[in-house]
Queue: 2 jobs
Job 1
Amino acid sequence: MNWKGITVGYALTGSHCTFEEVMPQIKRFVDAGANVIPIASYSMMSTDTRFGKSEDWQKQLKEITGNDIIASIVDAEPLGPSKKLDVMVIAPCTGNTTSKLANAMTESPVLMAAKAQMRNQRPLVLAISTNDGLGFNLSNIAKLIFAKNIFFVPFGQDAPEAKPNSLVARMSLIMETCEAALQGKQLQPLLVERFLDEVN
């Protein structure tokens, strides 16, 4: 697919352990010619963890995309009327974000941007990363799977023995899922053996 002239909204939420995994996926879009607009949750913008400092992740995000980060609800709101994003991806998409999205709660820059994308009936792609995917959050995931213009990066259990409720998307398929979403299609198969990824 030719990504030149395509604008991708790339949002990150607070699954800090996956930031290192998704940064190369953002670069794939840029290398393919897409204009990538970074969007970040409050957690991503303010929390230092054992996986890295917020300031360092922000710097990397800006360097990869060449754009400033949308980090407030006020800055995210214009994405609706401007119809700026051809496709938006939330990767990683936490259980907290999944829950709020499924229940129409808009209290972060990422959720406001997602609301704007849905208003414009344009594709929204979710790459889930949640320890509660097969717990209480399963009903929210199911709700979103059936929603119009929402697509999922193929996902599966990442550690079924240690964390049986945990679901994580196969982040290497983010671009391919977005390509399918732009054609109105869900990339298949949706369910993958994610826990085998590091073995193979």
Job 2
Amino acid sequence: MVLFLGSCTSTDCRETNIEGQKADLTVERKESQLFKAGSVEEVTGFLNHHPTLRDHFFYASEYPDISVLSSRIFKVIQDEYIDTLYREAIEQFDASAQSFEDRLETALGNLNSQFPQIGVPKVQTIVSGLYNDLYISDSIIVVGIDYFVGDGATFRPNDIPAYILKRYNHDYVVPSIMKFFIQDIPQYGVENTLLSEMIDFGKIYYALGVLMPCVPDHQIIGFTADEMSEVKANQEVIWASLIENEALYETSEFIKTKFLGERPNVYEIGEKCPGRIGAWVGWEIVKAYVESTGISLRELLEITNHHQLFAESGYKPQNL
């Protein structure tokens, strides 16, 4: 498949009939408190005062004693190179903080309007010396802001593949957080096929698009803008490849992973076709189905017959 480079310049928001009130969000900046610690004992005091950070972000249970973890953290904050990492993380987050809060307040507010049982978690930020990126629960979100400085960072995580690392900048943080809150709400398809699982993902990404109407598609699914432009320009070829390879009704987990799993590229379609392309196609099918039927978001997420959904979608990709 030949994919052509393009650019994504549209800043238009999607149409949505969801008008939730913005969530009342509290963002607690914890990095300065931690980095003021002047001893191992003060680090221990900080950790014990913030048990979520201690237990779920720094994984205290993996250490024989809290003092061992505190010693490790104190050594990090005393490292001569940490100043650069800390400064860049603070500068980047400060520059994007308003956008981060606006996006998350809008998304959580829209989510609560549809699913009131989901509360509004508090948010904490931390600089950990690239120890951890995100911790998310129903009650608290912890963002390791040093992970999300972006391509210009002096130091970047060295244990993350390049094709995933491209998502580690501030634009992708809120979509990643919101995926956690929405991913268990949709009903799964009853069919054990690639097509059904594509639509499983498609319903999640469609919901994210509704909850975050002004966040671009590529940030929601985790592509780069160029990857998204290439995919949209060649969607007929992508669809034809899935049909020609008789992949849609495959039940083999090995085959399904090729099109839905994390990979640099889906070489079975083309060397420039990004990984998880099946999830994007599933999203397009769901979009077509909603446009055809006018179904509500809640009704969509309750559907379990995905083969019927596909049949009624009238999905016919056209290159853009």
